[in-house]
Write a structure and sequence with these properties.
The protein is an alpha+beta fold. The protein is built from 13 helices and 19 strands. It folds into three domains: about 190 residues, no CATH class; about 110 residues; about 200 residues, Pseudouridine synthase. The strands form four sheets. Strands 8, 9, 10, 11, 12, 13, 16, 17, 18 and 19 form a ten-stranded mixed sheet that branches. A five-stranded antiparallel sheet has the order 1-3-2-6-7, sandwiched between helices. A two-stranded antiparallel sheet has the order 4-5. The two termini are about 55 Å apart.
């Protein structure tokens, strides 16, 4: 056993520290104090590794696993410490001192991955050589030349025919021999066909040369794809994942049983699976786990140095659900949150209902057992007159939510939202001081397919999202701010607040893009619009609770 992978806590560090009662639910958690302590020690170690500085500055996810183990001495003591891991590779290696090793070493020079990777690289080289070859470029150039010459010749002959036809029309009016005119016309049309056929044959003969080369490239690409698929599956078969029951299953089996199909690239190489695998393989008992980011944030997703993040969904959720079997894991906080099933009606007429939704309540039914605002509102009205929810707020967001009392009003009100004819005002407290008094944030947003439901900035495929803002107050490194969103993208205000290209100050309590607090400090304070029936300007307000 390589002991430098286990980092023991001293008695002084553990003094007064309560051990975790249950293992961390990895997809929504508050880091245990021991995880924070381990993360601090790991970051201190990273500072000593100056040769990694530039690589770590670009950003890397790290993980710590709090573990216990029995010592071999006569007192049979239990040691408490932590294991550390990084996602992917670091310094072109996946097996470094201080960190747990990879579950399967893809970087082994003599392993099948390196050998097959070299074979695929050779195919890539052949494809690149062909696509850049002088012979290929000469053929393409010849095709362009012949096509241009053909187009010129055919165009010129058509112009000649046009002039000849005009002459024949004149002669026909002068009672010239019609048979001769018809013969001449038929000859010219036939000659045009002959020119077109000849030119097409010339083009086809050269195109055949290019086609044969294209077929070779196509064959190489098919071989590359087949080799890549086979290699990927072979890799996944070599990732044999353990769980706390002592059972094992490879990634293909895990993802197939989770109805995800084939595992995504990079599955099994994140920090969390590495940590659990090493613990199970070396008789450590896992107690708690956390993952945190070091370095700069990527441009598309939001990552802040030193902040803790949940395990990723796409790659890790099926794996961790398997690996955690046999451990006493905390329940999902999103499914067990204590909820006050009451709401306040803040406006009502015969067409519209407005409700002040409390934080922590779903707008519409979801996967949890908690009652949604929609369900609670429906219960207070007769079955035949159930109000229809017009728009939604995130579960963690409080504030004004509108309902329509008829399908017609529902359609009209949704149209007002879609056409941006409703002015929305939100109050938020940001973790950081925003220097501007007011301004506009405009970032193109799209779903992050690797980490649903997180959104990311994508300047190529993202949808426009615009938010006006006004700073109300700055105090103790926090900013109280009013948002006026002009669009209604998912997580728009959260991303606009936290992203480096936005305000670079996450909303307090934003567990998706910032850090945990007692609640998400975001409140939908008011909606202003022209009433669809009365035509009067209506402002509906829910006082901010913070």
């Amino acid at each position: 056993m390589n002991l430098n992978r286990f980092h023991r806590f001293s008695k002084e560090e553990l003094n007064g520290m309560e051990l975790p009662k249950q293992f961390t639910f990895p997809f929504f958690y508050t880091p245990h104090p021991l995880c924070r302590l381990a993360a601090n020690r790991l970051q201190e170690y990273l500072k000593t590794q100056t040769h990694w500085y530039e690589e770590l500055q670009k950003g890397k996810m790290m993980g710590v696993l709090i573990v216990s183990r029995h010592t071999a001495n006569t007192n049979d003591e239990t040691e408490i410490g932590f294991l550390a891991a990084f996602s992917g590779n670091l310094a072109h290696s996946n097996n470094l001192p201080y960190f747990v090793p990879a579950i399967y070493n893809l970087l082994d020079e003599n392993g099948f991955f390196r050998i097959e990777e070299e074979n695929i690289s050779k195919i890539n080289y052949l494809i690149k050589q062909e696509l850049q070859s002088s012979e290929r470029n000469e053929i393409i150039s010849r095709i362009k030349t012949i096509k241009a010459e053909a187009e010129t010749e055919i165009s010129q002959y058509k112009e000649f025919m046009k002039v000849a036809k005009a002459k024949r029309d004149t002669l026909r009016n002068l009672n010239a021999d019609r048979n001769e005119l018809i013969t001449e016309s038929q000859f010219q049309k036939a000659e045009l066909k002959r020119i077109q056929v000849r030119r097409k044959q010339e083009i086809d003969s050269v195109m055949a040369l290019l086609s044969s080369r294209d077929e070779q490239v196509k064959a190489w690409k098919a071989e590359r794809q087949a080799r890549s698929i086979a290699l990927q599956e072979k890799i996944f078969r070599h990732f044999t994942m353990l769980n706390a029951r002592g059972e094992s299953s490879d990634l293909c089996e895990i993802f197939a049983s989770a109805t995800h199909g084939m595992p995504p690239a990079g599955a099994g190489e994140c920090a969390a699976p590495k940590l659990l695998q090493y613990a199970y393989s070396n008789d450590y008992t896992p107690l708690a786990m956390a993952e945190f980011w070091v370095g700069e944030s990527p441009k598309d997703i939001i990552r802040r140095h030193g902040h803790f993040y949940p395990a990723c969904k796409t790659k890790c959720e099926p794996i961790l659900k398997w690996m955690l079997q046999g451990l006493d894991v905390e329940p999902n906080p999103l499914e067990t949150v204590h909820q006050n099933n009451t709401f306040e009606i803040i406006y009502e007429d015969e067409w519209i209902l407005a409700v002040n939704k409390p934080a922590g309540m779903l707008s519409v039914p979801g996967k949890t057992s908690n009652k949604s605002l929609q369900e609670l509102v429906e219960k207070t009205y007769p079955q035949e007159n159930k109000p229809l929810i017009i728009h939604r707020l995130d579960m963690a967001t409080s504030g004004v939510v509108l309902f329509a009392k008829s399908p017609i009003i529902h359609t009209i009100m949704q149209s007002l939202f879609e056409n941006r004819n409703i002015e929305k005002q939100y109050i938020a407290i940001l973790n950081g001081e925003v220097p501007q008094k007011e301004g506009i944030v405009s970032l193109p947003l799209t779903l992050n397919p690797q980490e649903r439901p997180l959104q990311m900035v994508d300047y190529t495929h993202g949808k426009e999202s615009i938010t006006h803002f006004t700073v109300q107050d700055r105090k103790n490194d926090r900013t109280r701010i009013t948002f006026y969103p002009k669009t209604g993208r998912t997580h728009q205000l959260r991303v606009h607040s936290s992203h480096p290209d936005g305000l670079n100050a996450p909303i307090v309590g934003d567990t998706l893009y910032g850090t945990h607090a007692d609640r998400l400090y975001l409140h939908a304070q008011s909606l202003t619009f022209t009433h669809p029936i009365t035509g009067k300007l209506l402002q509906i307000t829910a006082p901010c609770p913070f």
